[in-house]
Every structure is written in structure tokens, then in C-alpha cells.
Amino acid sequence: MSKSSPDNNQNPKDLALDALKSVVSEAFVGKFTAVFPKLFKCQWKTYEGQKKFFANFSDTGCNMAGRKFCVGGNWKMNGDQKSIAEIAKTLSDATLDPNTEVVIGAPAIYLMYARNLLPCSIGVAGQNAYKVAKGAFTGEISPAMLKDIGADWVILGHSERRAIFKESDELIAEKAEHALAEGLKVIACIGETLEEREAGNTNDVVARQMCAYAKKIRDWTNVVVAYEPVWAIGTGKTATPDQAQEVHAYLRKWLVENVSQAVSDSLRIQYGGSVTAANAKELAKKPDIDGFLVGGASLKPEFVDIINARQ
Ligand code: PGA
Question: Fewer CB near the terminus (10 Å): N or C of the chain?
């Protein structure tokens, strides 16, 4: 007997149950077949759709070595409420590569203001912080204070702090140690002067600076190193991609020999020094360059193109 011609001897309760089952299953299958192609089409028809679809499941945005690209904007002592609001609007309106981590180093007095205006996906960094939590240190700010107002990063050891404010390798390393202990992430800057490069001392200088950090840092998870040749900072003279790659590769080797293979593989090393939208793409192709620390260009709309350099 076919299913469509009900068995007259069947119990009416079973008949009702069968009818209910078939209605439910047809409704479900019907709905499923009607809805699924729509879902399928909207997710798969366009490349953007495919990217979004997969982004929900997988992506960590890491490169082949498992390091997520990280771009920092270092505003230095620049900006006012009006210009910061404009930059924040540009960044909020732009489509930023979701595979790039972005951090803005604002002047201390505007950190909270910038935090409130920037998209949540963008981290905020102090440009300096002292090595203790509080006390009689007129003019200083502490990592605890940065955390308190919503900053999650601090830039330490920038060459301007080293050269103008005479910060030593040791002091910078102590600051990094304390900032990490307080739960901040640290952009730890290093880099040689022109004189040091011309004397052939680049590797020795960056090794010395790294050594000071390594004496104080036990866990490198929350550290990003920014290699910034001093001769390239604010001068318009970028290191060529090969020059930068050479030092980055040396730093990885140094890390293997002095810290560990695991840290060498996982630590992100940014390049900084006159990075612009025009040179970012080529620099970003180098295997050991995991991002940028950007000064002047981070105050301009082209910062968006630098963030998206790997697209
Ligand atoms: P610059 O600065 O991009 O203006 O050269 C970089 C930096 O100092 O971090």
C-alpha cells in the first residue's frame, strides 16, 4: 500500500500523527530548501561574501609564520581636539583590514579623548610611562594610569626619548618590565643612528638594545618590537625593503640565540621610519616585517592605506 493512500485499518491517532509528521517535515524541508539557497547565494555569490563567510569561522589574520600584522600610529606631540576628531572620523569611516591590528599612540593629555572617539577595534597607546605605579614623580604617568583610562598599550624606548630625554637602555627596559607586569602591551623601540650605521655597527647597536630588554622581559607575548633606524625617522629617507628586512632577519637570529626559537618565531617586529602609503606595500611584502610604527603619515588620511598595505 502506498503511503499516500492511508490504511483504513490504521488507528486514527496514528493517522493524525503521520499527517502531522509529514506537514512538519515538508514545512521544514520546504523552508530549508527555500532559505538555504538564499543564504548560500548571499554568502557565496561575491568574493566579499566568501571572505565574510570564512572570517566567521577561521581567520586569525596571521601571516605564514603565524604573526598578525600590527600597525601603530605614533602621533608624537601633535594634534589638538579638532584634528584628533577628524583623524578618528577618517578611521571610523574607512574599511580597515580586519587582519591588521591597529594601535594609536596619542599624546597623554588626549588619550582618553582619542579612546572615546576611535573605533573599539583600534587600540590606544601611551607614548611613554614611568617604571613605578605612583608616587612623587612630577610630570610622569604610570602604566596603571594608562590602563585606568582605557589605553592598552605603551610605546617605550622611542629614539626621541633616548636622544632628547637621555633615556638609557636600562631605564627603558625597567619601564617595559613594569608596564608588562601591569598588564599593558608594549611597543619596544630600537634602532641605530646614521653614524652607527655608517660605522658598520647596526647589528651591535640593536643587539645591545635588545639585550637590555631581554634582561627584564620574561614573557614576550605582549611585546611588539619596533625597529626604527634613527636616520629614517621623520627624514623622508625610508630604509629600503631589503635594508629593513636584513635587520629584521638579524633580530630573529639574535632572538633564537639569546631568547628562544619560539619567541623568534612569534614576536612581531615592526619597521618604522618615514613609512608612507607609497612605500608601505613593498615593505609589507618582506617576510620578517610584521607591521609598521608610523609617525608623520599616521596624522594623515593615508594612514588608512598603510593599515591596508597587505591587501
Ligand atoms: P616617521 O616617524 O614615520 O615620521 O618617520 C616614525 C616614528 O618615529 O615612530
Answer: N
Please report, as a single letter, which amino acid is at residue 103.
Answer: V
Inter-CA distances, 185 with 49, 234, 243, 277, Å: 33, 25, 27, 26
Neighbours of 43 (CB within 10 A): 15
Please count the structural domains in the chain: 1
pLDDT at 35 over 60: no
Task: For ligand 1, say whether the CB of 273 is within 6 Å of any of its atoms.
Answer: yes
Domain interval for residue 166: 68-307
Known catalytic membership, residue 198: no
Going 138 to 142 to 144 to 147, the CA torsion angle's sign is: positive
Atom 3 of ligand 1 has which residue's CA nearest to it? 295
- Is-catalytic flag, 228? yes
Count of helix runs (H) and strand runs (E) in the chain: 13, 8
Nearest to residue 149, comparing CAs of 188, 108, 120?
108
Measured from the CA of 235, which atom of ligand 1 is nearest? 5
Look at residue 147 and tell me if it is in a domain. Answer: yes
Set 158, 174, 248, 302: catalytic member:
158
With a cut of 60, say whether residue 59 has pLDDT above it. no
Terminal CA-CA length for the chain = 63
Q: Does residue 21 lie in a domain region?
A: no
CB distance 105 to ligand 1 below 6 Å? no
Q: Say what the pTM is.
A: 0.81
Query: Residue 215 and residue 201: Cα distance in Å, rounded?
Result: 21
In a domain, 56, yes or no: no
Pairing of strands 122-126, 100-105: parallel
Say if CB 197 and CB 231 are below 8 A apart.
yes
Structure confidence by residue, pLDDT tens digits, 170-203: 999 999 999 999 999 999 999 999 999 999 999 9
Q: What confidence score (pLDDT) does residue 56 get?
A: 35
In a domain, 40, yes or no: no
